[in-house]
Design a protein that fits this description.
The protein has about 425 residues and is α+β, with helices and mostly antiparallel strands. It folds into two domains: about 230 residues, FAS1 domain; about 180 residues, FAS1 domain (Roll). About 35% of the residues lie in helices and about 20% in strands. It is built from 16 helices and 14 strands. The protein has a seven-stranded mixed beta sheet. A hairpin with a 2-residue loop joins strand 11 and strand 12. Helix 15 crosses helix 16. The C terminus is likely disordered. The protein binds 2-acetamido-2-deoxy-beta-D-glucopyranose (5 copies). One 2-acetamido-2-deoxy-beta-D-glucopyranose binds next to helix 8.
């Protein structure tokens, strides 16, 4: 129990530090107040490619003027526009000087598009070439791509982290466009093709697919467990759920916001799902490490595997495990979430408070963290460790306090961690 608290705080701490170092630049802010690039900048925000750019420590953005941008977007879905913007983002530093002095007159470089996993072969690479007359041109490394995009001027240079350059035209290649769009998507068809047949069946039979479709108009992030996830040995028997609980479980697999992987990576604190009711229930949190992103329900963790559809404001990810909300599965080791009111945390053994000392500063920090819960009852057994014997549960926080009192150094770290945790909560709404 104590260990899991420490881990949780340390994870938050690491997340905080990662976030602090990752926001070295803010491309949106760089382009703010430059009227010739407003269209490019607004699409960067709408598709959240800005999150992908900001998370890179070394990056070159090839920016289109409003004119070039408007002819690019005239006929494209946001899914395709997103990929076009990614192909214009080079994962290396190129300023004007470097562009004009390429070693053998040309160089191949990687783009954000290559990192999506959609790029076959080296289609996510861009060939930069010095043309005669001092011109610099860009083309996709895909066969048959043309050097239609040329360098026009510098916008901002921060050696050797961020370079922002204006170019004449988008970089494209045959086949770049035509990724699945939400408008044309058959949700069940897409899910089946992505290896999520069981999940597709459940959302149809429960009718939850209609809720997803309504949400898609505004914003929807769907986490679809793959078929392997439903075969997991320790998966509780979902057939035992009441239909109301099954609906809550499936709603729990969706967020009422657009959160592609790059945005999940920088997400902090608890994230409400479609099942959340505003009281901090049915929330998720994100744990990321490098390019790996996992969702933590408090009961289990699930890796975000691949992205099936990304068409602002809808994104569909596959996940490796069924997400088990603690409101349904946090209590008994073998869950039988009875017909009780949906969303109630199974009652913890009453009041360690009676025998407990006055709350230490750290406990106050913790209270703050739990302040979202309307419950004034004793701390519910933190559901992040379902394997802990129930007898341990009520003693959890007090045991922690004892631990920290014994160890001054740990206490200092924990206090800082609690501060970080509160900070994470405070910024959560800005996700
Ligand atoms: C980047 O700057 C814009 C304003 O230009 C602001 O709205 C946004 O929150 C900033 N993003 C980050 C991650 O700081
Ligand atoms: C847009 O797409 C439609 C149908 O796909 C096509 O007829 C039209 O020529 C396209 N317009 C432009 C500007 O590419
Ligand atoms: C870039 O493209 C040009 C023209 O097709 C080619 O000659 C050159 O070898 C390419 N450069 C690299 C580094 O692939
Ligand atoms: C570039 O990034 C490094 C580390 O990521 C950082 O220490 C440095 O201050 C940055 N330089 C600028 C000009 O932002
Ligand atoms: C969507 O796809 C599924 C399976 O691929 C199919 O059974 C269903 O009829 C399709 N729905 C629509 C509206 O095309």
């Amino acid at each position: 129990m104590a260990a899991s608290h420490h881990q949780r705080h340390l994870i938050l701490l690491v997340l905080f530090l990662a976030a602090a170092t990752a926001s070295a630049h803010n491309i949106t802010a760089v382009l703010d107040g430059m009227p010739e690039y407003t269209l490019y900048n607004s699409y960067l925000s709408e598709t959240k490619v800005c999150d992908e750019i900001n998370s890179r420590s070394t990056v070159t953005c090839l920016v289109l003027t409003n004119g070039a941008m408007s002819s690019l977007v005239s006929n494209l879905s946001l899914a395709d526009i997103k990929n076009a913007l990614r192909l214009l983002t080079l994962l290396d530093y190129y300023d004007e000087k470097k562009l004009h002095s390429l070693h053998s007159g040309s160089e191949l470089t990687t783009t954000l598009y290559q990192t999506t996993g959609d790029a076959a072969g080296n289609m996510g690479h861009v060939n930069i070439t010095n043309l005669r007359g001092g011109k610099v041109a860009f083309a996709s490394a895909a066969p048959g791509a043309k050097f239609q995009s040329t360098y026009t001027k510098r916008i901002k240079e921060e050696p050797y982290n961020l370079s922002v350059l204006e170019v004449s035209d988008p970089i494209t290649f045959p086949g770049l466009f035509g990724s699945p769009s939400a408008a044309s998507a058959n949700l069940t068809g897409l899910l089946e093709k992505a290896g999520c047949k069981q999940f597709a069946r459940l959302i149809v039979s429960s009718g939850v697919i209609k809720m997803y479709q309504v949400a898609m108009d505004k914003a929807l992030t769907l986490f679809a467990p793959n078929d392997e996830a439903f075969k997991a040995k320790d998966l509780p028997d979902l057939n035992k759920l009441t239909s109301a609980d099954l609906v809550a479980l499936l709603q729990y697999h969706a967020l009422p916001q657009y959160a592609p992987k790059a945005s999940l990576k920088v997400a902090k604190g608890d994230i409400p799902t479609l099942a959340s009711n505003g009281a901090g229930k049915y929330d998720l949190s994100v744990v990321s490490k490098g390019d790996d992103v996992s969702l933590d329900t408090g009961v289990d963790k699930s890796r975000v595997a691949s992205t099936v559809l990304d068409d602002t404001p809808t994104v569909i990810h596959t996940v490796d495990s069924v997400l088990l909300p603690r409101e349904l599965f946090g209590g008994a080791p073998s869950p039988a979430p009875g017909p009780g009111p949906v969303g109630d945390v199974p009652a913890a053994a009453p009041a360690p408070e009676a025998s407990a000392p006055a709350p230490s500063p750290k406990a106050a920090g913790k209270k703050k963290k739990k302040a979202k819960s309307p419950s004034h009852s004793p701390p519910a057994p933190p559901a992040d460790s379902p394997d802990v014997a129930p007898a341990d549960a009520p003693a959890g926080d007090e045991a922690d306090n004892a631990d920290t009192k014994k160890n001054g150094a740990t206490a200092a770290v924990m206090t800082f961690a609690a501060t970080v945790a509160s900070f994470a909560l405070a910024v959560a709404p800005f996700l």
